[in-house]
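Protocol step 4 of 5: obtain the predicted structure for the target chain.
Materials: sequence only (see below). No template structures provided, no constraints applied. The aim of this step is simply to have a reference model before the mutagenesis design in step 5. Sequence pasted as it appears in the construct record:
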Amino acid sequence: MKKEQALQELRDVKRERERQISWSDRLWTLATGTTKDDSDSGVAGLSCRPLFPSEIETLIETNCQSDDWSLLRLVVATPKCQQDHSAVLRRRLSSNTFQDTVVLILPSTSSGTSTSIKAPTVAIHDKLPVGIHSNIWIANSILHLDARVYQNTCLQDTVVHRGGTLVNCGSVSCTHTDTATYGRLCVRVGAESGGGRSLSVTSESTMMDVCHQLLNGNTENQEQLAGLHAETPRVANNFIRPFNIICPNALVRDTPTVDGILVHTHASIQAATSVTAATLYPNACIKNACTVSSVLLQWNAVIQDHSVVTDTLLMEQAAAGPHSLVASTVLGPDVHCSAGEIHASIIGPNCNAHHQSLLIGVLWPAGRGNVGYGANVGSNHTGRLPDQETAAGEGTFWGLSCVIKMPVDLSHAPYSIVAAGTTVPPQRVSMPFSLLVDGSIVPAWVLQNSPYTLARSATKFANRRKAVRHLHYTGWKILRPDLMEQCLWARTALQTVPQVRQSYRGESDVRGIGSHTLTEKARQTGIRTYTDCIQRFCLQGLLVFLLDVQKRGIPMNNEEVVAKEFSSGRETAPTSYTPDTGNVSWPIMPWNVDESDLWNYQRSLLLQEFPCPLATTTIIVWTKELLHTLVALEEDYADRIYQSKHRDDTRGANTIPGYADSHVAAEYDPVILTARAVALQVKESVLTLLHELESPISKL
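Step 4 output (C-alpha cells):
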C-alpha cells in the first residue's frame, strides 16, 4: 500500500470512529428528549417515539418485562412513525427485562454506520436469527433489531448496530469514562517509576508518530503527522453518555466483563475474561481467557490465550499471546510476543519474543530483533527505584538467559548479538554487527562470521511484513547510508587506538566498545570487515551507475564520460555521525533516511575509499580495477554466508544421529542459493561491462 493511500485509510477509519460516537450521542439525545427535533446530522429522517399500547401488549406476550414501558423508545423512519410495528417486535424480541431508557431501532432503519470498511465477515454466530432474546437485564442502551443480542446477564450503556452480535456475556457496561476515550491512550514507557516518557497515541498511530515523540525534537515527518492528527475527536470527551459501540458484523461473545469498548466492523471479542476500555479495528481480536484493559488494537492485531495486556497499543498485525503479560507498551507492526513479559517498552516493527523472557523499559523503535528464552532485558532495580531503561539497536538478538543491567545503550550497535548467558553491565556500545560475549566484544562479528543471519533476515523481513498500512515505511534495507556512517565511525574508532597491544579495555582504550574487552586480533578483523562492507556497498552503487550508462547507449570506453562523473569536488561524503559519550543521542530512524540521492552518497564514499586518478587516461583502468574488486567482495560474501551455515551442518552431523537426513544442507539452502545467484549476476554484469570498457573507440 502506498504512503498516501495508507495515510488516507488511517484518516478514514478515524473519521468512522468519530462518526460512530457522534451518531450514538445524537440518537440518544433524540430518544431522551434532550433535543426536540431530528435535524442533527446522522439522525435526520428518523423519529423516536414511545411504544403504542398494542406494541407493549405484544412484548408482554413474548415474555418481556419492564417496570416502566414508557421509557422504551422505538426509532423508525419518519414516514412510518405512526404505524403499528407489533409484528416485527413479536419476531425480534423475547424474554428480556428492560430498565430505564432502551432505544430499539426497527429493521431497515439506518443506524448511522458506514459501508466503506470491507473485510471478511466474522463467521461464528452468523446463522443465529437476528433479534434480542433472553437477556436478563437491559438498560440505557441502543439496540438495532437486525442485531443479534442473546443471553446477556446485565446489558447497559451499549449500542449494537445492525449485524452486530453480543452473545452470552455477563456484565456489559460503560463506566470507565476516564479511560474509554474511544481510540486514544497515554502510554508511559522507559522508567517504570521515578520518571518516564509519556506517549500520546491513537488507534491510527504509526512508529513514525511514536518516534516523533520519543526523539523529542526530531522534526522529520512534521507535515504528514500534522495531516493525520489535525482533526481532534469532536465528541469523545463531550458526549452526554458514554456507550459501548458494537459495529456491524462485529462480535462480542462469552465474556464475563465488558466495559468501555468500541468494536469496529469485523473485529471480535471471543471468550475473554475481562475487556475494559478497548478499541478494536477491523479484524482485530481479543480471545480465549484474556484480561485486557486500556488497549488499542489496529487491523488484525490479536490478544489471545490467557494473556494480560494493559495500557498498550498493538499496531497492525501485532500479536500478544499465548500467556503474555504486557503493560504500558507500544507493539509495532508485525510484532509477536508470547509466553513472556513486556513492560514500559517500545517494540519496533518485526520483533519477535516467542519464549519466556522479560523486557522492561526497552526502547527499541527500529525493531527487527529477537528475544531468546530466559533473556532478562531489564535488570533495572538498583536497590533504589526501577527508574532505568535500555535503548536497543535495530536487529538486536538477545541470546538465551542473557542479563542486561540498565542503563544500557545499544542503539548505535545495530544487528548485534548478545550471546547466551552473557551479562551486560551499564554502558554504551557503538559497534554495529558485533558479538557481545562474557565481557568481550568482537566488532563486525556478524558481518564476518555469521552473514547468513543478515541474508536470512533480509528475506524474513520482506516475507513477514503483513501490516499493509505500514508498508510505506517498514521496508528499509539493512545496508544503507546511515548504517555505513556507523560502520565508518566504528572503523575509525578501531583504527585510532593510543597504543597497539594485545588487548584493550573500555572507552579509554577504544571508543565505542563500552566497558568490554577487545583483543588485538578482533580489532584488526573488525577494521578489515567494516572496510569490506563499506567498499562493497559503494561499489554496488558504481555497478548500478555503469549499467545505467550502458542502458542509455553511452560508450563505456569513453574516458571523458566516466571522468566527468568522478571529477574533483565530489569526494566528500556528508558525515555527521558522532555517537561519542559526550553526544548522547538517538541514531537516525531508518524511515527518515533519504535514499533518493543514493548514488551521490555512494560515489562520495567510493572516492574516499578508492581515490580517483587525476589523469583521464588512467580512469578506465581504475574503473576496471574497481569492478574486479566488487566481484571478489561479492564472491567472498556469498562464500562466508555458505560457510556460516555449513559450520552448523558439520557440527550437527558430528553430534546428532540422523542430523544430515533431517536438515536442509547449506548447498540447498534458499538463502545461500540466493546469495550465490546474486554474486553470479554481479560477475556476469561486470564481465559485460569490462568487455565494453576494453573495446577500442570507433573512429567513425
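Step 4 remarks: Residues 35-41, 115-119, 217-237 have pLDDT under 50 and may be disordered. The longest strand covers residues 97-105.
Proceed to step 5.
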